[in-house]
Automatic annotation (TrEMBL):
Limits of the Large ribosomal subunit protein bL25 beta domain: 146-230
GO biological process per UniProt: translation
Lineage start: Eukaryota, Viridiplantae, Streptophyta, Embryophyta, Tracheophyta
Protein name, UniProt field: Large ribosomal subunit protein bL25 beta domain-containing protein
Pfam families: Ribosomal_TL5_C (PF14693)
Species for this entry: Quercus lobata (Valley oak)
Entry's Gene Ontology cellular component terms: cytosolic large ribosomal subunit
Highest taxon, organism lineage: Eukaryota
Entry's Gene Ontology molecular function annotations: 5S rRNA binding; structural constituent of ribosome
SUPFAM superfamilies reported in the protein's UniProt record: Ribosomal protein L25-like
InterPro entries cross-referenced by the UniProt entry: Ribosomal_bL25/Gln-tRNA_synth (IPR011035), Ribosomal_bL25_b-dom (IPR020057), Ribosomal_bL25_C (IPR037121), Ribosomal_uL5_bac-type (IPR020930)
Length: 240
């Protein structure tokens, strides 16, 4: 088993190092290698982490929906273990904020092995150290729709008129939730602030995305960001 882990890690490192930076981030795929696990519990998870592995679970999107009427036969849940070195190699090329909105193929090796297309879900970290404690993945079959929190990235700050006048960029929303087809999940949403002046703002409904994406917000008129004037406190008069 240790030999297989080493082989999988080397293959992943080769794929990462040979990956072309000219490709769009949405097309960057890295295969995550995993093995099944049967035992659960804090002691088992602590032992896995001490040995350089990360406990993970792969679930169907039907299990995430409280009102789901899908039969039990359609639900899928697999307990697996990944290797920390593999995840660390991925995080060097796919930054952590975008890890949860990027799709990855997952290869589960058990006997003859099998391959499944997985959509990355949530990533749980230790708040103190930032170390990855466990991973949760969601099945992303083509044609299915998933609720995804997509990170917002602001660009054009270096030429923004409002910021050049001394204003401040108030990032009201750093993530937007969409209902996305599995094959069209965007790793990030770019918001251009290069033309904003002091007092200007960009609203949720201003963001252009693929027409198949549905924004999940009760109020699309909420701002994503705005340029506000810097408030300077009046200095106390010097005592004579």
């Amino acid at each position: 088993m240790a030999r297989w882990w080493r082989s999988a890690t080397n293959n992943l490192r080769t794929a990462v190092s040979s990956h072309s930076s000219s490709q769009p981030s949405s097309a960057r795929y890295h295969t995550i290698q995993a093995i099944p696990r049967e035992c659960v519990g804090n002691r088992v998870s602590s032992r896995d982490r001490a040995q350089g592995r990360i406990p993970a679970v792969v679930i169907s999107q039907h299990l995430l929906q409280k009102d789901s009427t899908a039969p039990r036969s359609m639900s899928r849940k697999h307990l697996v273990t990944t290797e920390w070195k593999q995840i660390q190699a991925i995080l060097k090329s796919v930054e952590l904020p975008f890890f949860c909105s990027t799709t990855f193929p997952l290869q589960i090796r058990a006997g003859s092995g099998s391959s499944h297309l997985i959509e990355s879900g949530t990533i749980h970290r230790d708040e103190a150290t930032g170390k990855v404690l466990n991973l949760v993945f969601v099945w992303a079959d083509d044609g299915s729709e998933l609720k995804v929190d997509v990170p917002v990235v602001f660009k054009g700050e270096d030429v923004c008129p409002g910021l050049q006048k001394g204003g401040h960029l108030n990032r009201v929303r750093t993530r937007l939730k969409y209902l996305c087809p599995a094959e069209l999940i965007p790793p990030k949403i770019e918001v251009d602030v290069s033309n904003l002046d002091i007092g200007d703002r960009i609203f949720m409904h201003d963001v252009e995305v693929h027409p198949s994406l549905k924004l999940l917000s009760k109020n699309e008129n909420m701002p994503i960001c705005k340029i506000v004037a810097t408030k300077w406190e009046n200095p106390e008069p010097a005592s004579l």
